[in-house]
């Protein structure tokens, strides 16, 4: 539907330009004819008899020669009249050709990425607007491409840096095992376990980098469906019971027994996984990690699905809260890199929440740190 509208707009613009050139040419031809006829008529009226008699006298009153000269004068006047009209018409054609030259120069300026807007005569104002739109779009696409390239380079730098540490440890322990075949069995088992942990750590880093690359270089596809959020949250929480028991933490679910929501379950599971993993990694041993869910109705009647994960541990400063969702942010006091992560988990979570039309927020007060995810549900899903 949009393409026919654009085609019609281009046809209308071409028609307006053609009519403008034609009108200007016709007006110039008429003006030339009027001026020429006025001057010619005035000359003939004022000086015609005097000049004719003087020439007749110079020709010794030779009527034949006088008649021939008079005819020649009339023919030359007619030729001059026709040539004048031709020149005026040619001027109109040249003006049209100058428009093409201006358009060619404008396109060349766009390709050369020159500064400033495209400037064209008033008759070409719609074309100037279209060219300026094309130029702005091209510059925007170029900036987006450069930003994508910068993000890719940034990822490569961080990938190289973060892979180096576990990879060095793996090589070191394997070299030690190879060069020391007489090591006690318990030492070999401990070194093998450390090496395996480092390998898992390396795999985790690569997974995070691949995921953030996908989320940064393309739009996150969101495929919503209706599901039971209560069952969904409990399933995600259950996955962390072994890790929580190892740190003497209690995982507590707070919410209804059933809760129907509309979202991309796979993407939200990634968000909840990142946030719970972060809480379990930083909560004080022997405390509770609480996962709360429910529907919240805003003042305007809009309904949101709320997911909140809270833990008791080290308090985060306002400065860290402002940057905690930035990619690769890994200050010692921050939680952007749970268990030594690459600082991408919370950044990924924010990307997913915003792709849903929602967001994620963090707060920390008196050691109680909470991450709250909001997913829009719309006014029609409100529950009593």
Q: Could you characterize the architecture of this molecule?
A:
With 384 residues, this protein is α+β, with helices and mostly antiparallel strands. The protein has 9 helices and 7 strands; from the N terminus they run H-H-H-H-E-H-H-E-E-H-E-E-H-H-E-E. Strands 2-4-5-7-6 form a 5-stranded mixed beta sheet. It has a two-stranded antiparallel ribbon with strand order 1-3. The longest helix has 57 residues. The radius of gyration is 41 Å and the shape is elongated. About 3% of the residues have low confidence.
SSE blueprint and pairings:
Blueprint: H1 2-58, H2 63-111, H3 125-179, H4 185-217, E1 225-228, H5 229-238, H6 241-246, E2 250-254, E3 260-263, H7 265-282, E4 288-297, E5 303-312, H8 318-323, H9 345-355, E6 359-365, E7 368-376
Parallel strand pairs: 2-4
Antiparallel strand pairs: 1-3, 4-5, 5-7, 6-7
What's the gist of this structure?
The chain is built from 9 helices and 7 strands.
Assembly state: single chain
CATH class categorisation of the largest domain:
Alpha Beta
Architecture of the largest domain, according to CATH?
A: 2-Layer Sandwich
The structure class reads alpha+beta
The pLDDT mean sits at 77
Counting H and I runs of at least 4 residues, what is the number of helices?
9
Distance between the termini: 43 Å
* Rg over C-alpha atoms, rounded to the nearest angstrom: 41 Å
Helix proportion range: 55-70%
Largest sheet: 5 strands, mixed
Q: How many domain modules?
A: 3
The count of DSSP E runs of length 2 or more, i.e. the number of strands, is 7
The CATH superfamily of the largest domain is identified as Histidine kinase-like ATPase, C-terminal domain
- Assign the CATH topology of the largest domain: Heat Shock Protein 90
């Amino acid at each position: 539907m949009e393409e026919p509208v654009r085609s019609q707009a281009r046809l209308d613009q071409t028609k307006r330009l053609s009519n403008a050139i034609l009108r200007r040419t016709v007006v110039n031809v008429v003006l030339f004819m009027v001026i020429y006829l006025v001057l010619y008529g005035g000359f003939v009226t004022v000086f015609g008899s005097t000049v004719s008699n003087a020439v007749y006298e110079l020709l010794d009153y030779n009527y034949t020669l006088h008649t021939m000269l008079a005819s020649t004068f009339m023919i030359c006047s007619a030729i001059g009249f026709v040539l004048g009209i031709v020149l005026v018409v040619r001027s109109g054609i040249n003006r049209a050709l100058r428009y093409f030259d201006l358009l060619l120069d404008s396109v060349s300026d766009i390709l050369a990425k020159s500064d400033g807007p495209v400037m064209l005569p008033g008759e070409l104002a719609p074309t100037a607007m279209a060219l300026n739109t094309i130029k702005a779009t091209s510059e925007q696409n170029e900036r987006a491409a450069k930003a994508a390239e910068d993000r890719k380079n940034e990822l490569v730098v961080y990938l190289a840096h973060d892979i180096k540490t576990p990879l060095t440890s793996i090589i070191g322990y394997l070299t030690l095992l190879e060069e020391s075949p007489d090591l006690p069995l318990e030492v070999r088992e401990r070194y093998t376990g450390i090496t395996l942990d480092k390998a898992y750590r390396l795999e985790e880093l690569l997974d995070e980098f691949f995921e953030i690359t996908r989320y940064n270089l393309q739009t996150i596809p969101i495929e919503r469906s209706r599901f039971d959020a209560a069952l969904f949250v409990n399933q995600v929480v259950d996955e962390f019971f072994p890790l929580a028991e190892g740190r003497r933490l209690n995982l507590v679910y707070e919410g209804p027994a059933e809760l129907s929501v509309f979202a991309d379950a796979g993407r939200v599971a990634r968000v909840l996984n990142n946030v719970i993993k972060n809480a379990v990694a930083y909560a004080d041993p022997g405390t509770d990690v609480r996962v709360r869910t429910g529907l919240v109705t805003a003042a305007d009647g809009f309904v949101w699905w709320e997911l909140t994960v809270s833990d008791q541990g080290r308090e985060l400063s306002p400065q860290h809260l402002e940057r905690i969702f930035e990619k690769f942010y890994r200050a010692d006091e921050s939680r952007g890199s749970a268990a030594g992560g690459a600082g991408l988990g919370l950044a990924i979570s924010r990307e997913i929440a915003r792709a849903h039309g929602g967001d994620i927020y963090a707060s920390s007060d008196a050691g109680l740190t909470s991450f709250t995810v909001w997913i829009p549900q719309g006014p029609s899903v409100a529950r009593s």
